[in-house]
Write a structure and sequence with these properties.
- This protein has helices spanning 2-7, 20-34, 37-55, 62-87, 95-109, 115-139, 144-162, 177-180, 188-205, 208-218, 220-225, 230-256, 267-277, 289-308, 315-336; strands at residues 168-169, 182-183, 186-187, 258-259.
- The chain has a single domain, classed as ABC transporter involved in vitamin B12 uptake, BtuC.
- The strands form two sheets. The protein has a two-stranded antiparallel ribbon. A two-stranded antiparallel sheet has the order 2-3.
- Residues 1-12 have low confidence and may be disordered.
- The chain has 15 helices and four strands.
Amino acid sequence: MSAVAESRPPGLGAAGAEDPSAARTLRERLRAAFGGPESLVFVVLLILAGALSLASSNFATEFNLQNVGRQTSALAVLCVGVLFVLLVGGIDLSIAGVIGLAAVIAARLAASMSPAEAFLIAVLAATAVGVVNGGLVAVCGLSPIVVTLAMGQALLGVALLLSPNGPIIVDNPGYGDLAASKIGPVPTLVVAALVCLVLGHLLLRRFSLGRYIYSVGGNEQAAWLAGVPTRPVKLTAYAIGGTFAGVAGILLSSRTGSGEATLGSTIMLSAYAAAFIGGVGFGTGRGTVVGVALGAVVLGVISNGIDLLGLNGDWQYIVSGGLIIFAIGFQRAAAQLGWGRG
């Protein structure tokens, strides 16, 4: 009997099936080694940075790293808003329209008031859109895909009406200070993004709202039975998503020095790609601010690497689409490892 047992491959039970205890041991070892999906993304980021440093001597320079920070800041902020919506099991396809509307509003108002006041009003308008989206989804029970897609189209139309002659070029010299200035060696855009990331992290980890959001995303029915106000929580998540989308629109508008209705048309896909790469599980209540931030930086480094290597910029869209497919497999692997929400 012992000879038969010794002839079996390691990890197989009596019938040749995989030993569950061995599989659990492997999962525990991998979790101990990597900590969670965010750690794996960080490893991928280090590999990318190392490869690009070897491929181009310009990658690791201070000027280029500052450029990567500026390019990634708006995406990282947008990813935080996407995270809140995804955590409650929703989706927001209106963020491209929200970004365009916020940019156009800020650019128009900057001609008659200070940039700070224009930025604030634009962000408040974006928050109002998030509240409407949340109300239609959480209170009225409408499909989030249909509602937010229709809202995005409507917002694009409004932004186009507000800019009938094309992009609004801002003459106010202070409008672009947010993008052009630095605090020491760090661009102000990066500082603004870090503030948003810290704020999002605190909301999810230090306040009861965060616990409610995770519980609603994990099991909405169970959360409701436990006394969680599921509808207000979902509405609040959409409102926060709108706020961060508005801030992202402000950052993008300041970089370009203009207000353009289609400013957010390409960044929305990148935001969801970054979120999924960063470990956000769709409809699972799993994900962290650290994860989505790392996902955004990965996409920023890839985009920067394409530019440095002189490749066709259209590869960026191909890579973004491919990374979403990769992220699906990544999520499946993470689920098999038994990782939770980080």
